[in-house]
Amino acid sequence: MNKKVLIISSSPRKGGNSETLAAAFAKGAREAGNQVETVSLREKQVGFCKGCLACLKLGHCVIQDDAVEIAAKMHDADVLVFATPVYYYSVSGQLKTMLDRANPLYDTDYAFTQAYLLATAAENAPETFEGTEKAVQGWVDCFPRCTLAGTVFAGGVNDVGEIAGHPALEQAYRMGKEVWAEDDDADAKTKHANEMVFPIGAPNDAFAKYFVGQSYLAPLSTAQVGIYNVTFEPGCRNNWHIHHAKSGGGQILVCVAGCGYYQEWGKPAQELHPGDVVNIPVGVRHWHGAAPDSWFSHLAVEVPGDETSNEWLEAVDNTTYFEAVNKKA
Ligand code: MN
Questions:
Q1: If you measure from the C-alpha of residue 201 to the centroid of ligand 1, how many angstroms do you get, rounded to a whole number?
Q2: Do 204 and 280 form a contact (C-beta atoms < 8 A)?
Q3: According to the model, what pLDDT value does residue 189 have?
Q4: Which pLDDT belongs to residue 8?
Q5: DSSP, residue by residue, 216-280
Q6: Which ranges of the chain have pLDDT less than 50?
Q7: CA-wise closest residue to 105 among 133, 127, 77
């Protein structure tokens, strides 16, 4: 299942090394199908915590600056990623100030269960990163449902751009790529399976390269007319594609469980529920898949025809997908 990932970058320099490290993590997390947002503290006004503790009664801070909105985003995110340069063996002042200003989240129903720390430093000694990790670990420990799930440290980088080619970039990219919820998935999948009479089937490995996220395939009929039950994990969708045929052909979707979407190129997406039927003519560029927060299954009926083929095109990137399903550009 995809996750809401919030990256808080505290790099004071545009294109700075920790910001570049954050961008690598973001790229991986996006490619895995997650919803990723990066907040750059450099562009924000974040004042020091006054220690008044009014937030614990009000639920928000009394200081009206950008930290209020950032804390609200932190509350809703599933995954928090902190990117910081190491300053005097700890986090940057900007990040520490923001962590303090996130105090309104203490003892709330915050969503985040995982935090990551990405850091860079000019020095590259084994102990260079220790204080920074300890600072963030200390904050995470105050939020019992959350754990510090991973850290990446790039030492020996100072000038802007010096991180280029550093192995930490690849490490951050891979760590981002692994952000995809496993924990609650088993339960949700079982619940979805129980809602329909057709099996979910096996992981759709043969077509995985044409999907974002995990899909499953259960062949129901392979004679006369091909009928397959296709199941999509939340957020999963197939690439833009076109069903071709010289005559006849095309595809019919019969929705059987969950909530999903169908979108034709240049048109708004259509929300799909069990019982809905979609007739997809040949030659129409389209995609189909699950809603971000729901499993989805449809029967794919392959309409017989002469010289039928599928043309697979580019993936439906997150921007396109979320715009389509949120119905707002
Ligand atoms: Mn199709």
A1: 19
A2: no
A3: 87
A4: 98
A5: EEEEEE-SSSEEEEEEE-TT-EEPPEEEE-SEE--EEEEEEEE-EEEEETTS--EEE-TT-EEEE
A6: 328-329
A7: 77
CA of 264 from ligand 1 middle (Å) equals: 10
What separation in Å is there between the alpha carbon of 241 and the centre of ligand 1? Answer: 6
**Residue-level pLDDT at 183:** 55
E-state strands within the chain: 4-9, 35-40, 79-85, 114-121, 147-155, 202-203, 211-212, 215-221, 226-232, 237-238, 241-244, 247-248, 251-258, 260-264, 270-272, 277-280, 286-290, 296-302, 305-306, 309-312
Give the pLDDT confidence score for residue 1 in this predicted structure: 63
Per DSSP, the three-state class of 169 is helix
Q: How many whole angstroms from 35 Cα to the centroid of ligand 1?
A: 24
Q: What is the pLDDT of residue 329?
A: 39
CA 149 to ligand 1 center in whole angstroms? 38
